[in-house]
Here is the input.
Amino acid sequence: MATKSALLGSSLTKKYWMALTGLFLSVFLIVHLAGNLVLLGGKEMAENFNAYAEFMTTFPIIKITSYLLYFSILFHAFDGILLTIQNRKARPVKYHYEKPSANSNWASRNMAFLGTIMLFFIVGHMATFWWRMKFGELPLDAAGRKDLYTVVEVYFTTASTALLHVLIYVVAMIAIAFHLLHGFQSSFQTLGVNHPKYTPLIKKIGVGFAVVIPALFAIIPVYMYLNQ
Ligand code: HEM
Here is the structure.
């Protein structure tokens, strides 16, 4: 049953917003990955990557979309915390015959834990790259643009810290994979997409998305580390 609470009414409404913001964040992941794959081109592609980063941080429509993105990240996280608290309150004591593994998978039972790892990752990640791009004093490349390529390269190749940074990114991508494994198909269910033909297809696409997108993200730091 839907329980009333302070932010945004019932738990059903909260789930709707989780689904909508989650799908929006999934679209962001595709766009962000497409831009970041340029990093695999190495130094030869550095100016292209810097041009892309400049475009993403200055072009007006994208700038406005970015604000929607920051809001969605915060909203998705906050709404998720409220939903978790609400669900725990609704059933504080587990039934003694309850066997969670029998009717739900590990990812679906640990969405809050996986989401928390992602939130820590995103805060650290934005402090490392986004903050420096926006507010930092960066060296300029030959075309006079902020040289974000070198910032990323140094982060994943500086001898004393690179391995740790690469490991953090790979672990975070594994957490994202599991979060998406449940989140992608669950958001369609929440939005009421329930069809004998399309639901199995959505589930398959969800698994593909949850594996391929984080795997491609993870390849970037690993590749930069190994190819220095
Ligand atoms: C190897 C993986 C990744 C690399 C190398 C990378 C790199 C970067 C860089 C260089 C920026 C600053 C420039 C820009 O705004 O484009 C950035 C921004 C950002 N990244 Fe990533 N990223 C990675 C993965 C991720 C993942 C998995 C997420 C989310 C779960 C994420 C979330 C963000 C966000 C929210 C921003 C700010 C975007 C904006 O201002 O519009 N990144 N990333």
Remarks:
- The domain at 10-91+107-226 is CATH 1.20.1300.10 (3 helical TM bundles of succinate and fumarate reductases).
- The radius of gyration is 20 Å.
